[in-house]
Design a protein that fits this description.
Helices cover 38% and strands 17% of the residues. It has 244 residues and is α/β, with parallel strands linked by helices. The chain has a single domain, classed as Spore Coat Polysaccharide Biosynthesis Protein SpsA, Chain A (Alpha-Beta Complex), CATH 3.90.550. A 7-stranded mixed beta sheet has the order 3-2-1-4-6-5-7, sandwiched between helices. Strand 1, helix 1 and strand 2 form a beta-alpha-beta unit. The longest helix is centred in the last third of the chain and has 20 residues. The radius of gyration is 18 Å and the shape is globular. The relative contact order is 0.16. Bound molecules: uridine-5'-diphosphate and magnesium ion.
Length: 244
């Protein structure tokens, strides 16, 4: 690995995505090369049971921009994302799913928006018959509505983890399991500016979603109450005067 820091760190949590990894690496390279910015692709294997890790090692062996690490066992999407963010060396971090539901061709829009904001969140644009099925779209919308209501938030699509932010934002937040859904709120609590951009939402290229209605809607409810509490208890002060 070279000592030079890249501009962009793409951070990908990976759980049983063996058929998606090679196409992801190709799609990322094709999308970024015309942009003329340096990048690294950081893949964290969240204890996959399929051949993901072998493929990740082969990809890393062929391209030094691809960096891979592996958990001993499955610890969840937030943990895998956080491990990638901590390993990231770029000026900007982009979190992107492994299954190509997020389109790397949207990356220039993220970079543009980062010129005026600290954090940029993708909002999935629903195209009829494309992307996700009715149950997933509906449960995701309900979860988003409840989340916004209870945490007095106005994120259009908190379930979309296609996001970009300045590197330093990560150092300020402490993540817990399930918190990947609340990252924009956690960033706002630290005073960072957040904007949203529309992004394409493709169907999953291969494999299956790791979430059902249960863990999308109900499991995150506890997390929501914790975030609501944290928001109400944010320390908010300015030193007016100081001597010595
Ligand atoms: N993922 C992970 N660990 C898990 C569950 C998911 O690393 O325990 C990864 C998964 O491989 C994918 C991303 O998180 O890259 C989002 O998962 P998925 O596509 O299943 O979620 P959906 O798009 O259906 O909401
Ligand atoms: Mg997906």
């Amino acid at each position: 690995m070279s000592d030079e820091r890249p501009v962009l760190s793409l951070v990908v949590p990976v759980y049983n995505e063996e058929d998606n990894l090679q196409p992801l690496a190709v799609a990322v390279r094709k999308a970024i090369e015309p942009m003329d910015v340096s990048y690294e692709l950081i893949l964290t294997d969240d204890g996959s049971k399929d051949g993901s890790w072998e493929i990740m090692k082969a990809l890393a062996a062929r391209d030094s921009r691809i960096r891979v690490q592996k958990f001993a066992c499955n610890r969840g999407e937030t943990a895998a994302s956080e491990a990638g963010m901590r390993a990231a060396r770029g000026r900007y971090i982009v979190t992107i799913d492994a299954d190509l539901q997020n389109d790397p061709n949207d990356l220039p829009k993220f970079l543009d928006a980062l010129q005026t904001h600290d954090v940029v969140c993708g909002t999935r644009v629903a195209v009829r018959g494309q992307g996700d099925n009715f149950i997933k779209v509906t449960s995701s919308r309900i979860a988003n509505w409840v989340r916004n209501k209870l945490s007095e938030e106005n994120i259009s699509d908190a379930g979309c983890t296609y996001r970009a932010f300045k590197r330093e934002c990560v150092d300020k937040v402490k993540l817990y399991r399930g918190m990947h859904r609340f990252l924009p709120t956690l960033f706002k609590m630290e005073g960072y500016t957040v904007t949203e951009i529309p992004v394409t939402n493709n169907p999953r290229l291969a494999g299956e979603s790791k979430y059902g209605v249960w863990n999308r809607l109900f499991k995150s409810f506890h997390d929501l109450l914790a975030v609501r509490w944290m928001k109400k208890r944010v320390l908010d002060y300015k030193i007016a005067e100081r001597v010595n």
